[in-house]
């Protein structure tokens, strides 16, 4: 038991590993020692990323240009911009993404 916070040291270690992506070997750690962990206990490190907000500038710019052209009444030019935006979004995100769906919604 950790005397300063009243939490089990095993629980603290488990929470630390879950939050940071550190994986350690399964064994009975002696927390009474000054160094209960050593380098050999580290199994691997897994990146912990739940979401990243990435916006491809070229594709987003083409989409915005298409919106401007549509408001100006230049449908053919807007369709060219939208098809370019779809291609760039597909290269970055793959075929199923909300930005591609938005482009197709405007095209329809």
TrEMBL record:
<dbReference type="InterPro" id="IPR011990">
    <property type="entry name" value="TPR-like_helical_dom_sf"/>
</dbReference>
<dbReference type="GO" id="GO:0005737">
    <property type="term" value="C:cytoplasm"/>
</dbReference>
<dbReference type="GO" id="GO:0048312">
    <property type="term" value="P:intracellular distribution of mitochondria"/>
</dbReference>
<dbReference type="InterPro" id="IPR033646">
    <property type="entry name" value="CLU-central"/>
</dbReference>
<dbReference type="Pfam" id="PF12807">
    <property type="entry name" value="eIF3_p135"/>
</dbReference>
<feature type="domain" description="CLU central">
    <location>
        <begin position="6"/>
        <end position="31"/>
    </location>
</feature>
<dbReference type="GO" id="GO:0003729">
    <property type="term" value="F:mRNA binding"/>
</dbReference>
<protein>
    <recommendedName>
        <fullName>CLU central domain-containing protein</fullName>
    </recommendedName>
</protein>
<dbReference type="InterPro" id="IPR027523">
    <property type="entry name" value="CLU_prot"/>
</dbReference>
């Amino acid at each position: 038991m950790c005397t300063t916070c009243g939490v089990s040291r095993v629980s603290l270690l488990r929470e630390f590993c879950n939050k940071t992506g550190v994986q350690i070997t399964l064994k009975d750690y002696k927390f009474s020692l000054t160094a209960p962990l050593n380098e050999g206990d580290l199994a691997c490190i897994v990146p912990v990323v739940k979401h990243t907000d990435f916006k491809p500038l070229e594709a987003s710019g083409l989409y915005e240009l298409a919106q401007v052209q549509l408001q100006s009444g230049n449908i053919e030019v807007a369709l060219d911009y939208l098809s370019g935006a779809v291609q760039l979004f597909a290269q970055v995100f793959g075929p199923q993404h909300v930005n591609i769906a938005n482009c197709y919604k405007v095209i329809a």
